[in-house]
Amino acid sequence: MAAGKGTRMQSDKPKVLQILGHLPLAGHALAAARAVEARKVVVVTGHGAAHVEAAMAALAGSMPLEFARQEPQLGTGHAVQTAAPCIADDALVLVLSGDVPLIRAATLQGLLDLSAGRHLALLTVQLPDPSGYGRIVRQSGSVKAIVEHKDASAQERNIQEIYGGILAAPAGLLKAWLGRLDNHNAQHEYYLTDVVKLAVADGVQVLAHCIEDALEVAGVNSAAQLATLERAYQLRQAHALMDQGVRLKDPARIDVRGSLVCGRDVEIDVGCVFEGQVVLGKDVRIGPYCVVANCSIEAGAVIAAFTHIDGESQGVRVGAAARVGPFARLRPGADLGADVHIGNFVEVKNARMAQGAKANHLAYLGDATVGARVNFGAGSITANYDGANKHLTVIEDDVHVGSNCVLVAPITLGAGGTIGGGSTITKSTPIGALTVARGKQVSIANWERPVKGAKK
Ligand code: UD1
Ligand code: CA
Known about the structure:
Elements: E1 19-20, E2 23-24, H1 25-35, E3 41-45, H2 49-60, E4 65-69, H3 76-83, E5 92-95, H4 105-115, E6 120-126, E7 135-139, E8 142-147, H5 154-157, E9 161-170, H6 171-179, H7 195-201, E10 206-211, H8 223-243, E11 247-248, E12 254-262, E13 267-268, E14 272-280, E15 285-286, E16 291-297, E17 302-303, E18 308-310, E19 316-318, E20 323-324, E21 329-330, E22 335-336, E23 341-353, E24 358-370, E25 375-376, E26 381-383, E27 393-395, E28 400-401, E29 406-408, E30 411-413, E31 418-419, E32 424-425, E33 434-435
The structure holds uridine-diphosphate-N-acetylglucosamine and calcium ion.
Uridine-diphosphate-N-acetylglucosamine (UD1) binds next to helix 3 and strand 9.
């Protein structure tokens, strides 16, 4: 169910498209459906339907997906009724809410198992403050009804077991119940929760799967709740990493927005954000406050504080035992070999650096191939862009580029050569030579400096 408006979010974006981790809220429900191997997913859309449908289609991958538009939105029972024509009579239906992102696959599997293709199974939880939720009404232990908060008597409002908004039921039975719903209630809505009474009347067993962790059924209605669930989601991921042996300085200060795969003995300091697909090899260390996105960092490499890495769709590779940062920036296509050193305020884009190459301070390497053991001096840059096109700089093995050089591409610096500091190099340079391209130094003796206010 993803048709609701989400007025309290105070946002132009449909609520179910608000982002938690790296996915829209409804994307988490979709992932849960994938995890229990749903035969197909039917998404009920209404508010912002075109946007919601486009986002879900992009996330579904190979999973069969259909949309049912609910216009107008007459309640959760009506929402599921809208989806009914898309559902085969022999199906087992699992109803999920698009704004409940932290539900676990194992919990859903438990609910499906409880339904066993025959019973109506409800996800419930005990809440110290159940206000607002549908209450589970039991008689000598058996579930008899769900009463919505607005329809509940004072006595019913004392019930702490609530309906978590997720149920499983055989499609044939569910469809028959949906056809018998009415809207004779406080909100004049067709309540999905009224199927419980109908099941009881039909002699179908209603079973409650009562879980411990209320966060699993927590919904998002406001920016504050979204932030609360974001922290819970991140903490859950942090614990999953620690369970694998990853050493986090503080599980409350890491954000993983995508997939983070770690080898043994990885250490991650505080304040780091991981995005997209990131792979960290054995013994990798990530210093404090790094952004690490779409890259692979090989065994023993060290990323020092405040480094920004994002390979976007191209990727970034940091070779074994390389050292990057503090304050370094690796952009798409940066491919660092083993033992490469990239220091502070160095930017690398679409550049391959062979084993042991170093750029330790204030440099730009863009569209370049850099040989083994090259030393690229402070303040030096590849001038890769002529205003219209990008050109390649080739620096062969063992070249030493002094400080503050401009290498105007396309250009090749021959192996073992030295480029004198302050040179602007516009032609390729020979192997083994010292090349200097700058004004000769001149001194003028007894030079008198101009004096302020002096007349000519
Ligand atoms: C619902 C349950 C309540 C339960 C609570 C748990 C009903 C009648 N009540 O209440 O028992 O305790 O969830 O969170 O089901 N939606 C549609 N179309 C509609 C109405 C809603 O698609 O016409 C979607 C919403 O976008 C949302 C979900 O259904 O994703 C739940 O709707 P919401 O209005 O939030 O139900 P609650 O009042 O929270
Ligand atoms: Ca809700």
